[in-house]
Amino acid sequence: MHPELLLRTILFLPFAGFLLLILSGKKVDNGAGWIGLCFSLAGLGLTTWLGSGPLSSVSFVWFELKEAFRFGFQVDILSVRMLLLVLFVASLVQLFSIEYMREEDGRYRYFAFLQLFVGSMLGIVLADNLLILYIFWELVGVSSYLLIGFWYQKKEATAAAKKAFLVNRVGDVGLALGIFGVWHRFGSLDYAVLSAAAPDTYLTVIGLLLFCGTIAKSAQFPLHVWLPDAMEGPTPVSALIHAATMVAAGVFLLARIFPILTPDALAVVATIGAMTMLMGAVYALRQTDIKKTLAYSTVSQLGLMVLAVGVGAPQAALFHLFTHAFFKAGLFLSSGSVIHSLHHAGHGFDAQDVRIMGGLRKKLPVTFWAYTICAAALAGLPLTSGFLSKDEILHEAFTLTAHSWKIIFPVTALVSAGLTAFYMTKQWLQVFWGEWRNPMLGFAHVHESTWLIKTPLVLLAGLSTAFVFSLNPLGDHFSPWVAAGSVAVAAAGFGLAWARYHGGVVRNEKELPLLDPLYDVFFVAPVLKAARASAWLDRVVIDNAVILSAKAQVVLAHLAGWTDRYLVDGIPTGIAWLSGWIGGMTRRMQGRAAQSYVIVAVLGLAVLLIWWTW
Fold first, then answer.
1. Are residues 486 and 362 part of one domain?
2. Helix pair 77-100, 314-345: axis angle to 10 deg
């Protein structure tokens, strides 16, 4: 198959799957998962074929404005790898979802929305310019809104979907302004023109505006607040869009625009990444919801990737993006396996609360080992993929920031790594060790799910080992001191958590206060007040002004009509009538006796004498 046709087919398949599923409706509910899986597997196979041949691009003129805007897609090593990542994880998620969503109504909608999301992500990955990226960027936002709010009967789900959508719009405004700036500065939106330019304030502003898109999509401070709430969506959705793909789009964007990020812009990027990384880890420490711990962990890991770009190591950030996609998807699906097993065994309790779990390694051995391996990768333990990517980020960060104030960034990353090991060990102990703590469900009723759920867990756990990415388990950029520091802080986090929670002990810990109330006070409430004031201004002032203006125009129209009728038309009519009257009088006088002429003459003489003497 010709590479151009191959590329078009890969991009077309998920949208075709979306249309097929959404138009077929409930009659394909039972087979919707298999239909979606077939489309994703077909795309995965074609992408493998595409990557094995010569890389190419496709573009055509879309419209012209001073110069041609091209609708184009490019195929390079990064885009091929991202395609494989998105389609592979999407395939596993859909396989998992066939069992996980078996009892849900409207499964055709769920799998159709997944296909729409996959197509949108492929568009972001393949876009060869910022305009095309922005189009698919917005489409990803729409599809994620639909997936987060899939259980629209739940108020929490609809609220979370709206929150995610609106918070992302804030960042997207900045992204759009940055795209305008790129057009003004370079005269084109193609990635090819985004080469290193002389840094100045204007270029710094452009870079930071584009970075706003990353802040929102990749849940960076201060726009991170939507991601934990998005856990209201189905757990497989969290694995796909909130761990492996959508949230990684912001890091992918940074890698594409890296050549135009000035040193000042990179300093801001690194600072935001460090703040997000540390904040996400601290919040994860006190979570009791199995998914929210992983959500805050995702926030923290995305901060690490952004920090890596900020210190000048985009390749290390992309490496961690790939390793993180596998082990975090594995963790989310493992948590989904736990939730599904508890839901399937009984109802009437919160199946996501780790305080009523414990000892599940005995009942869910496959889930336990998958979770253990993926958690070890997240903590950055040796022989895991997370160790390789974290070690590369730390090595690059320490090397690039040595002898400058920026050394604080890798130091913060080390602290965050220790916190990560602590909260993951804590959750691991509470869920799988100790005694069963759920009084509403007998332990005997809990059991492992079918192969549809276990297969993705095994594959993702296998992909979280170091040997998948490097034959050298220590990595290609091994630094003894950096590796020793990384392992030491991870061991310290593991040891402290083991000492505190060994045996699955549950302590009475309160969750940290969220930033949402502050946002409500300083942002949401003022915006709502401004909206109400605008509505009042529109309803009372502007509408009344329009009504008064209309009434005034009616009055003026009547006045104009009267003036036209009685003045403009009346004066000539009156003059004509007066002329006729005078003419008539003159005619009557001229037709009378001689004494009439004498009387007129005398009257005329009298008038002249009076006027002269006056």
1. yes
2. 10
